[in-house]
Amino acid sequence: MVGTGALLLMVTACAGQDMPTNLPEAPAGSVSASPKPSPSGSVLPAPAEPNPPGKPRLTVPEGSTPVPADKIDATALPAGFPREVWTSNGGTVLDIRAQEGGCGHALGEAAEQTGDHVVVNLSETKAQTNRMCTMDIRYPVISVALAAPLDRRTVVLKTTPPK
Description:
Elements: H1 2-15, E1 65-66, E2 72-73, E3 85-88, E4 93-97, E5 100-101, E6 106-113, E7 117-124, E8 137-138, E9 141-145, E10 154-159
Parallel strand pairs: 2-10, 7-10
Antiparallel strand pairs: 1-3, 3-4, 4-9, 5-8, 6-7
């Protein structure tokens, strides 16, 4: 009880002190660790960085264009698997909502690219043995590079065994 009182006394004593207002500005072109308030006082989110192929992220890259449902062939996917695809980088990158769980990580690979379709194999890394893993399911967005823009081609989604 005495320790809690002492801690409370220290916190309130520190809270009453003025914080310096003459902190230096970050140099031009540098990255700030904290978001900056907008003129209205609300905090603006950090701009989304481009999603390099092979690196999963939680959100779809800003400026991505949804691929129409009639241009996605997901008949080979298991029930309940996501069926969302976007293009970015002028159509040369597919951003695909994948599925992963536990210690595994979603992977995507353009297995075939023809004039009328692109086949993307979706898989997951194997969990390491002798390691505890959660039993959750996550839906990251993975990016797959194409040799040419998708244009009017159909995206064929398939799953392959874990790697």
